[in-house]
Amino acid sequence: MKREYTGNIMYQEQLLEDCYRMVLKTDADLLQQALPGQFVHLRINPLGGPLLRRPFSIHSIDQEQGTLSLLYAVVGQGTRIMAADLPGKTVTLLGPLGTGFPHLPASTGEVVLVGGGLGTAPLLHTASWLQAAGRKTRVILGFPSQDRAMLASDFTQIGATVHITTEDGSEGYHGYPTSLLHKVLLRESVQAVFACGPHAMLENVAKVCGEAGIDAWISMEEKMACGIGACLGCVVRIRDEMGSHYEKACLDGPVFKASEVIFDET
């Protein structure tokens, strides 16, 4: 059940020039409830602005340390304030929110995770969850270039097989993550694909997996003002037997079955 929790900033890591990981000490109840692919709505300054909360995917959880981490890029006023925050500051977290990645039936096939840029954010917690359940996990991380690549070692440390792709070929596979995904689906036994990243990448994930007959679930990066389904600013068009209908990314998602999403209106 969602509720408001406090989070105390333990430390921050600067992963790239404009990308940070914030580690928060928070309530064990939130950590135990949070499922892979869910998010929290963060109030950066409980006693001041910005007015609106910011949605952030749950990046990772450490039950022993009692911490939750968030991955974010500095893109506006709120995240600039976050990047300047020092250890000891208290923020508030509404969550866990949304519908995450599904529990899959037992299988010897791999689960392949595909992340594009900052879309890697929810995949570390997801990979940890899969590895803890004894699932074979392969991760494909796509970046423009080597100097934008990050997090490979985090996934390797939890036992996942990791591939880096770069658009300019400066590291790993030369091309887009969906191009490598296509090759993996041809040569490996894959049960399902979980993905998060830009819409163009997610649309290609849906296409590649559809052609291969592999189920895929995608986390849609929609703008969320309220995070609780009131503002209707994050709707996604979904196929149904009557044609289509709209669902709210903050409640019904952010994770949707890829084959059900109509991309030309997202």
Automatic annotation (TrEMBL):
Residues 2-103 form the FAD-binding FR-type domain. Its cofactor is [2Fe-2S] cluster; FAD. Transmembrane segments: none annotated. [2Fe-2S] cluster binds at residues 226, 231, 234, 250. FAD binds at residues 54-57, 78-79. Binds 1 [2Fe-2S] cluster per subunit. Pfam families: DHODB_Fe-S_bind, FAD_binding_6. Keywords: 2Fe-2S, Electron transport, FAD, Flavoprotein, Iron, Iron-sulfur, Metal-binding, Pyrimidine biosynthesis, Transport. Belongs to the PyrK family. HAMAP family: DHODB_Fe_S_bind. This is Dihydroorotate dehydrogenase B (NAD(+)), electron transfer subunit. It comes from Anoxynatronum buryatiense. The lineage of its organism: Bacteria, Bacillati, Bacillota, Clostridia, Eubacteriales.
